[in-house]
Predict the structure of Large ribosomal subunit protein bL28.
Amino acid sequence: MLTGTKPGFGKRVSHSHRRTNRRFDPNIQTKRYFLPSERRTVKLKLSARGMKTIDKIGIEAAVRRMRARGVKV
């Protein structure tokens, strides 16, 4: 919800070097945060990088950033 991370795509390469399609899924976690300004908790689906971003900038700034992008929080 915060970073807009989507799956990446690539090739799986076998021992004989045959190539088939594969997907690199992001590390998505569901986490609850407490919003002091609204006195409630919010449940967010975040990648591991998104959690690190919230630790760095704070939950209030992260929610502001998500609402600016049009994500319902």
Summary: Residues 27-72 form one domain.
